[in-house]
Amino acid sequence: MDTTAIFKAYDIRGTYPDQLNEKMARAVGSAFATFVAVPGIVMARDMRPSGESLCAAFAEGARAVGVNVIDLGLASTDFIYFAAGYLDSPAAMFTASHNPAGYNGIKLCLAGAKPVGAESGLLEIEAMTSKFLETPAGGSTGELSHRDVMDEWVRHVHSFVDVGALRPLKVLADTANGMGGFVVPKVFAGLPFEVEIMYEELDGTFPNHPADPLNPANLVDLQRRILDVGADVGLAFDGDADRVFLIDERGQSISGSTTTAMVAKVMLQRHPGATILYNLICSKSVPAVIEENGGVGVRTRVGHSFIKRDMAETNAVFAGEHSGHYYYRDNYRADSGIITALIVLEMMSTSHETLSAIAAPFQRFAASGEINTTVENPKDTVERLSATLRARGVDVDELDGLSADYGTWWFNLRPSNTEPLLRLNVEAPNDEECTQRVDEVVAMIKGM
Questions:
Q1: Contact (Cβ atoms closer than 8 angstroms) between residue 275 and residue 249
Q2: Residue 141 DSSP label
Q3: 17: cis peptide before it, omega within 30°?
Q4: Exposed, middle or buried by CB within 10 Å (0-12, 13-18, 19+), for 442?
Q5: Residue 445 in contact with residue 373, Cβ under 8 Å?
Q6: Domain topology for 366-446
Q7: Which of 44, 122, 281, 406 is a good FRET partner for 224, with 20 to 30 A between their CA atoms?
Q8: DSSP E strands: which ranges in 110-267?
Q9: pLDDT digits 0-9 by tens, 195-215
Q10: Which residues have a catalytic role annotated?
């Protein structure tokens, strides 16, 4: 079996059972347990049909090298990060996040929820996985046990807000048959909200719509329902419920950049002068809001392993990504959609304003959203375009792909980590100019 097909920059992911199956999961279990070299690890899974057997195989592989395994059962990815911190244990989460039903995957982290990515151990784990595929471990057997720390996690999530300040709001949550349907009822139980959950049933075949809130088509049901019932806010979760996207009372989507800026202001009110991280495809409104509120803004690469590393180095209290991932220092520097949702609901409760009114001051520019272009050699295309723009005197940096800043507008162009695609993000002063600039950049890409 080919490990190169499933080991990505940040995690392991592939189609089941041809790319990722029980044999592969067992080898990954042995490799991960060998890599972390501790007496025990924890694991959990989302609702995908293949998750149970893959988890069992992974545990078998870990136990075969003498490592104990604690099975936490069904979980969201942000829950497993909490468990890795709370139990001070390396962890494995079986999920393919927003990918279609035919996929599954594994997100790995070290004790304290420290990241495991291509630059922090995943390549070594891949090499060991290949060896265990050839020669499966057959040594001493560790123990398998089960544990429930859901109550502890709910208390932890609630600690990020003043529960007593929350007021009655009508909340709609579209969990897309993903793990949000498992965790949202537990977190919102006892809070003064009227909560309606759409597609709450756990079903890894995603019978209603894909669990990918980045795609506007997957928000239509939630937007329509908000208007039908007069809800105050809509929450759209992805498959493993670590990301959330906000829909306001008018049925309008609020970008990840706007949410990052909103939460950044809250965190700076609580931690004056703190450092806030934002990835390089976030709107320029994010660093502006950080500066306006007395914080120190640090621009980072896209991806959780890079952000968590940079948070540790800078002691940042918060970090946000345009893609809907929001990280908190006091959450073991891990991302959480449900914590972010509660912070926004607290903002609405204390301000007595609508979500659209709260978000308006942070919505300062027009954004294209991510536009994918298929090219034969993404990396080569980016390098040639970068050289061309530098020769023209354009302000260019290569922190992550290519970012070109023209003053009044900018774009970022990054090769996909998994496909022969270039991912383009453009921001401009208004929608008309944004469309014009997208056309210009796409033309430049095709001319390379």
A1: no
A2: -
A3: yes
A4: middle
A5: yes
A6: TATA-Binding Protein (3.30.310)
A7: 281
A8: 144-146, 170-174, 194-198, 233-237, 244-247, 253-254
A9: 999 999 999 999 999 999 989
A10: 97
What residues contact residue 235 under an 8 Å CB cut-off, 6+ apart?
171, 172, 173, 174, 180, 184, 244, 245, 246, 247, 337, 341
| pLDDT tens digits along 298-319 | 999 988 888 999 999 999 999 9
Of 219, 273, 448, 258, the C-alpha closest to 367 is: 258
Phi then psi for residue 410, to 5 deg, are -150, 160
Dist. CA 269–CA 291, nearest whole Å: 13
Fold annotation for 3-149: Alpha-D-Glucose-1,6-Bisphosphate; Chain A, domain 3 (3.40.120)
Cα angle value 254/247/431 (rounded, 5°): 40
What is the per-residue pLDDT for 418? 61
Q: What percent of the chain has pLDDT over 90?
A: 92
In the structure encoding, which two tokens stand for residue 314, read together? 């800078």
Distant-in-sequence, close-in-space partners of 142: CB < 8 Å, separation ≥ 6: 33, 40, 62, 63, 64, 65, 66, 67, 68, 69
Contact indicator for 219, 236 with CB cutoff of 8 Å: yes
Q: Would you state the structure tokens that stand for residue 384, as one six-digit string?
A: 């040639």
Least Cα distance to 311 among 115, 447, 117, 120 occurs for 115
Half-sphere exposure of 315 (CA within 13 A, CB side): 3
> What are the residue ranges of CATH 3.40.120.10 in the chain?
3-149, 170-250, 256-362
C-alpha span between 383 and 168 (Å, rounded): 53
Complete DSSP assignment for 182-205: HHHHHHHTTSS-EEEEES-S--TT
Q: Which two tokens stand for residue 169?
A: 């709001």
Residue of 61, 67, 68 lying closest to 133 (CA atoms): 61
